């Protein structure tokens, strides 16, 4: 009967769905991390203070711009 065709279509649809879902999730996470970076200025300031450095505003801005530029270069 039509059972082999139904199984074949179901398998192909599952594979296409998995591949499509992977790429959609990948794009969503890239956009999310670009808009909400995992490190912000306050976290950077705290890390520098824990390492014994006195963070100046200029140094923090410089480090943030370096991190943004390194992320775009990849």
Task: Report on the architecture of this protein.
With 74 residues, the chain is mostly helical. It has two domains: 1-36; 39-74. The protein has helices at residues 3-35, 41-50, 57-73. The protein is rod-shaped, with a radius of gyration of 23 Å.
Concise summary:
The protein is rod-shaped.
Descriptive labels:
about 70 residues; mainly alpha; 2 domains; 3 helices; rod-shaped
Give the SSE map.
Layout: H1 3-35, H2 41-50, H3 57-73
The main β sheet shows up as: none
Total separate domains: 2
> What is the distance, rounded to the nearest whole angstrom, between the alpha carbons of the first and last residues?
52 Å
Structural class: mainly alpha
In percent, how much strand structure appears in the residues?
under 5%
Mean pLDDT: 89
| Number of helical elements | 3
Number of strands: 0
Series of secondary-structure elements, N-terminal to C-terminal: HHH
**What low-confidence regions span 5 or more consecutive residues with pLDDT below 50?**
none
Global Rg: 23 Å
Task: Characterize the overall form.
Answer: rod-shaped
Helix content: over 70%
């Amino acid at each position: 009967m039509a059972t082999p065709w139904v199984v074949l279509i179901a398998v192909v649809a599952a594979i296409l769905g998995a591949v499509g879902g992977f790429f959609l999730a990948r794009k969503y996470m890239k956009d999310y991390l670009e808009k909400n970076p995992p490190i912000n200025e306050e976290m950077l300031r705290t890390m520098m203070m824990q390492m014994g450095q006195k963070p100046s505003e200029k140094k923090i801005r410089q480090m943030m711009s370096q991190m943004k530029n390194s992320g775009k270069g990849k």
